[in-house]
Amino acid sequence: MLNVWEHLLTGRTQLIVNGTLMFAEVQYYFTQKLNDELHAVALIIPYSQPDQELLRKSSGTLYVCTPGGGEDSLAIDVRSILSVVSMPPFKPPHKDRVSRDERFMVEKIGLEIAHMSGVTEAAGDV
Questions:
Q1: Which of 2, 46, 75, 77 has an alpha carbon within 20 to 30 A of 94's alpha carbon?
Q2: Is pLDDT above 60 for 29?
Q3: Using one digit for the tens of pLDDT, what is the confidence trace for 111-125?
Q4: Which distant-in-sequence residues (6+ apart) come within 8 Å of 24 by Cβ?
C-alpha cells in the first residue's frame, strides 16, 4: 500500500546508494509498509556519474553530470539523502568540448552551518 505524503520537497539531491555518491532528482516521497514497519521512501531519477576528467582537472570540485531518463527511476530510503543541491546548466568554457544537456552541482550552504553550530531538529514520525 502506497501513501503519498509529500510533494513539496522534490528537487535535486546528493545521496549515497550502495556506498556510491550520486546525484538525482526526487520525483516524490511516499511511505511503504514492509514487514509491518512503515518506511519513508523517495522515487528518484539519477544523474549520470560525474565527468571524471573535469572532476580530476578541477581537483575534485566540479561535478558535471547528465540528467537521467524516467526509465532509470529508483525507489530509495530517504535516509540515503545527504543534502539538497542545485544542478544548473553547464556551459563548456572551451569550444573543443561538445555542448550537451549537462548540469553541474552547486551545494546549498546552510544545513552544514546549522549542524556545526549545534542546531538540530528532531525527525517527526513518518
A1: 46
A2: yes
A3: 555 555 555 555 555
A4: 12, 13, 15, 44, 45, 46, 47, 68, 74
Q: Strands, E, within 1-126: which ranges?
A: 2-6, 12-17, 20-34, 37-46, 64-65, 74-77, 81-86, 103-104, 106-107
What is the rounded CA–CA span in Å between residue 111 and residue 104? 20
- Strand 20-34 and strand 2-6: pairing? antiparallel
pTM for this model (two decimals):
0.69
Burial 4-17 (b: 16+ CB within 10 A, else e): eeeeeeeebbbbee
Round to whole Å and give the CA distance between 124 and 12. Answer: 22
Amino acid letter, residue 13: T
Residue type, 62: L
Contact 10, 81 (CB under 8 A): no
